[in-house]
Amino acid sequence: MIGYTVGWTLLTAMLVSRIGINYLPILYISNALLVIVGAMFFGELLHRFSKTKLIYSSVVIGAILLATAIAVFYSFGNWWLFFGILLVAESIFFAQLNILLGLFIEDLFTPLESGRAFPLIETSEYVGGIAGGLAIVGGLRLHFETSQLAWIWVGAVALILPAILLFNKFRQKLPTLEVAEEKTRLSHFAKFREGKKQIRQTPFLTGLVFVVLLQWTLFTLLNFQYTKAVDANITHTSEVADEEMHAAADSGAHSHEELLTHGLGSLHILFYSLALLTQLFLSSRIIAKFGIVKTLRLHPLATFGSSCLLLLKPGFGSAVFAKGLFESTSGIYTAAYHSSFYALREKIRGNVKEFLEGLIRPAGVLVGTGILIIGEKFLSGDNFSLAINFALVAAAAAMSFLLWRNQKNYTKIPEANLRLSGNDPAKFQSIEILAQSGHKNSAEILIQKLFDEKESPLFRRKILETLGALADPHAVSAILKCFHDADENVRLAAVRALTQFEQLDQKAHAFTHRRVIECLKELFTKENSPEIRSTIVRVFANLRQEEAVEFLVAELQNPESPIRGDCIFVCGQFGDLGISHYIEPYLRSPNPIVRANSIVALWQFKQFRLRLTRLLADLLDATDREIQKITIHTLGEIRANHELPRLLDLLECEDNELRLLAALALAKLENPISTHPLVEFILHPNLELAAHAKKQIRNLPKKIRKTVEKILHHRLSEKLNGLLVTTHNRQIERISNDTLARIRRIYELADDWEEVAKLDTALAEKNFVN
Fold first, then answer.
1. Which domains does the chain have, with CATH numbers?
2. Coil, helix or strand for 644?
3. CA-based angle 52:56:58, to the nearest 5?
4. pLDDT tens per residue across span 479-495
């Protein structure tokens, strides 16, 4: 972004100061046509080389062209050749570099992650814009000639390579495999045709074509009006230039060029600073609250308002305000725009984006430039400016209307993808798309698929996770039905979904709340899975209602209850000293589980601590292996730092179960020595032991959990890269079934369910070599 800010400012200032503002449309037309040429050129290369290699090539060739332009200018003094080479570098190589970087970044995130990540990525662009503006102003204050500022452009571009290399070293996403059909080679024109075909078949994309066209029409018209206002202001006043520049300036074009460059650079600092604040404090919140399409509408609505002001009160102030507001809201628009592509299937996403960015975007610039040229031919002076302002208002209004009409069409894309067969990765992404705000009836759409007998448990678990995120009370009934599912993981996902329904405590949902309590009681009584019971505990703790208390007390007072120990543990979650009346008698229970849970429940109350310490010592002296397991778990639950030496010794024992329990207890004590042993257990060949370790990670303190996840990702990445190096291939069809099974296990441990689904689909549909 530093390079773009410096480069585009340099091109604009040189053209306007040397041949006049009326010739600025020449720059726009040349840029748009060269972008199309660049899109066709790189489109032919995209299926031959990886995105990373093309990014590196674009950077190197672009930097060489910039250096060549500077050398030509100082050797021959040919301004037109200097300008032309700079324009080619910007329009062909750096414009395509932006598209390639967008595709590269898009591969790193899921739809839900993109809503948080893209606004943050956009902030880096605005920081770069501010830095570019400061570089321009600072360079001129240091008496750089305008042409010498191109060296700043070269330096900024050169920094892209080490930045990408550094990023690849620390990237968090695992490498992915490819399916043969993804490598089908098409000519660039065939790709454009394919993209056009997909757009015609998808109403949302048809609307998006006109939205992108209008967005860049708006950009072109507003940029012309803004540049014209700045140029006029510099011509008639000296407010932009400081006293030192006036002292050095003469009446020639060179002085005007410096003043215009300085003025545009200074305003870049202002605009990008405002945009940065908007991105940091508003963008993610707006996308999370309103969803993708409604967020897209914010930008044209803001532009409509500022264009109306420009229409009613034209002048320098209004133009600067309109440009500033446009830049401030375009970051929000861009983040939502890029996130919207996740609704498309991965195999068509690239073609559609190439069509929109490589053809429709420059077409919008050409439309805007056409309006400028026609206006200049038939109108002059204030009438010409008035006509352009009218065009701005009309384009912004049309863009807002199209986006308003497109909301339902956006929802239809993931809804259609949910009907795909098998575990197609697009189905999983569609679930995340429907979890975003702004969709109507998304819960109903997901519930319909939840009870489809053809769907896999993995797919239904993902739906339940999303229904929990939506927290729609109307989905509670469907979630409760999943309590009777034959698959244990589906039942667990259903209970976990309920942990997010905090509003069920309200009077408006009294009957739903009562039914939840009844179903939880029933499941708690019948369920054998400790993980599910533990999750039910958290739901009870969230509700804290009389019905839950009555159920727990009734079970505690029932001598025949098989779940008494679990109920004692639940009571400890309430933090109410009154529970001691019901739990204290069980400190003498002959059942070690009941006794241990009673210690855990009452440990929070200091008046019981001395007695509990003596009872704990009795458990610690036991030689029975099962009692030892219970005791180690208890040490973690009560955060027994005084038993740290004992836990460290257990971490070295040969019994894997005791070692795992000791590692979990140390993790609950937030001892970092536990992290590496926990990762080893997650990767353990004993799948039952590994599954238990993996499930317990979510219950650990945040700091330890994050460290474990980081180490685990690093180990999984090493294993996966090692397998890919051994196979010398990333195409699923060319990898043996045994290796694919090992790779699938890695993705499963990384919770990369889209890649798991891709492997499952490919394994089911194709014949593989052994």
1. 2-171+191-414 (1.20.1250.20)
2. helix
3. 115
4. 999 999 988 889 999 99
